[in-house]
Amino acid sequence: MLKKNLRWIVPLVVLLAVVALALTITPLATHAASPNVTWWTY
After folding, report:
1. What is the distance between the alpha carbons of residues 38 and 30, in angstroms, rounded to a whole number?
2. pTM score, two decimals?
């Protein structure tokens, strides 16, 4: 029973971690990139 649950839980946790990282990194990356973009355009 536990092993069957682990087969479901582990990928789910990994997926949630990836989504959380993506949501955290994307705004930071865009925020860090926007001053660089404005810098290059001027």
Report:
1. 12
2. 0.56
